[in-house]
Write a structure and sequence with these properties.
243 residues; alpha+beta; Phosphatase 2c, domain 1; 6-stranded antiparallel β-sheet; 5-stranded antiparallel β-sheet; 7 helices; globular
């Protein structure tokens, strides 16, 4: 597996409230990528995303260190729950962090399986055999409006309520996370991104970049540059994994 990640506060925001982490087990048989987009006043969103990302990776690393290799689906689901609890507890202990939360999207890869987990509207895309598909479903108001036929999918990116999410990590002691198993094969690429990218760069454009750029670092930097050139009103974070 090869990895690349990059993040930028964008052209408008004063603070970068996104966070990402990459982990590969010592035996290189397992890998984890996680991305979180924080929300909260002052610097609370920055705290929430960092706490969640660290907690997810730390939990996964502990599971992969066990004598019996765990199932990727168990690691993904349990790590998300653990991350949620850490953010929730921090918000209860620290008055400055009260009400903070974060999105979370992660991929857990083992020699036998690949699983994606998400809460919120940060996304995972999967490029396989020249085709790009969105693995995750946004937990957002505009996504529900699209599914109900209230607005068209093309309108969602520019809708004035596009930033309202319906699920987040850290707001309650328990979370509902979506878990997806994927048939990841050699040469496939996974992309995790915050909405700072997906609100500005279309799926078709993302696919074009991933197909044209053979180096993950070149693909990631090019996607970031596209978002920045379009004004980047939000933080932009991109994490790539090639199997």
């Amino acid at each position: 597996m090869t990895f690349f990640g990059t993040t930028d506060k964008g052209k408008v925001r004063a603070v970068n409230q996104d966070a990402f982490r990459v982990y590969e087990s010592p035996d290189t048989l397992a890998g984890v990528i996680v991305l979180c987009d924080g929300m909260g006043g002052e610097r609370a969103g920055e705290v929430a995303s960092a706490v969640a990302a660290d907690a997810f990776v730390d939990y996964a690393a502990q599971r992969f260190a066990e004598p019996e290799p765990p199932l990727a689906v168990d690691v993904a689901r349990e790590a998300a729950a653990w991350a949620n609890l850490q953010v929730y507890d921090r918000s209860r202990r620290d008055e400055a962090c009260l009400g903070m939360g974060t999105t979370l999207v992660a991929a857990v890869i083992t020699s036998d399986d690949a699983v994606v987990v998400n809460v919120g509207d940060s996304r995972c895309y999967w490029l396989a055999e020249g085709q790009l598909q969105q693995v995750t479903r946004d937990h957002s108001l505009v996504q529900e409006m699209v599914e109900q036929g209230v607005i068209a999918a093309e309108e969602a990116r520019s809708h004035p309520r596009k930033n309202l999410i319906t699920r987040a990590v850290g707001l309650e002691r328990r979370i509902r996370s979506d878990v997806f198993r994927i048939d990841l094969r050699a040469g496939d690429t996974l992309l995790l991104c915050s909405d700072g990218l997906s609100n500005l760069v279309s799926d078709r454009e993302i696919a074009g970049v991933l197909l044209c750029e053979t180096e993950l670092s070149h693909a990631g930097e090019r996607l970031l540059t596209m978002a920045l050139e379009r004004g980047a009103p939000d933080n932009v974070t991109i994490v790539l994994l090639r199997h």
